[in-house]
Structures are given as structure tokens and as C-alpha cells.
Amino acid sequence: MRNIPVDLSALAFIVAGEPEPKIVDRATGEVKKDAEGRDLYTIPLLPKPNDDRRNPVIVVTFPSENFPTIPEGVQVRPVGLAAFYWQMNGRAGLGFRAEAIVPAQARAAA
Quick check: bond before 49 cis, omega within 30? Predict the structure, then answer.
């Protein structure tokens, strides 16, 4: 799986729903972890401008030490956003990952 960086220079992102843990096993409720052992979460984001009326929201997976409290409707910046193609059990699609989801006015550490 190869990640493709996403150019964010012309985009803004609005939170379209609450973050949710990325569940590995629904029976146990086990949350998926990244390579550093941090829990992974998903969050629906609405890119602006967006002319795709059929599927305007993207779901982005990101790690967090604690359960993220990111309110719906705020503008955020997905740090290190990358797209990737996935294929599993006869299904395939485009996924999105970010290193972090931060408030839009926050600047990346230099």
C-alpha cells in the first residue's frame, strides 16, 4: 500500500460528524492501534471547495493518545493527509490517513 500525499493548499476542511474509534473486533470492542501503539480514530470531513455532489465527505483515520473532542462544524487541518488505495475480501476503495487533526488556525511545528 503506497500513500499519496494530498495537496491541501487550496482546501479547507469542516468537521461533518463526531470522531469515532476505529474498531478491530466489534464483538470485543477492541480499538485498532498504529505502529506506536496509539488508538486510531475516524472523522468525517467536508473538503471545501468540493464539487462532488454524490460523495462530498471523506472519512480520515488518525491516531490520538486520548479520545479526541473535535466538535462538528469547526474548521480543521488534517496534518500529513495522504490517500491510499485498499483492497480486501473482494472490496476496494480509496482511504485517507492523517498524522493529526488540528484546529485550522494552528500551524505545523517547524
Answer: yes
Q: Residue 4: its pLDDT value, please?
A: 80
Q: How far is CA 94 from the centre of its chain?
A: 12
15 near 71, Cβ under 8 Å? yes
The structural domains of the chain, with segments of one domain joined by +, span 4-103
Q: Which residues, including other chains, have CB under 8 Å from residue 67's CB and lie 6 or more apart?
A: 19, 21, 39, 41
Residue 41, H or E segment: strand 39-48
- pLDDT single digits (tens) 32-88: 999 999 999 999 999 987 776 666 899 999 999 999 999 999 999 999 999 999 898
pTM > 0.85: no
**What's the topology of domain 4-103?**
OB fold (Dihydrolipoamide Acetyltransferase, E2P) (2.40.50)
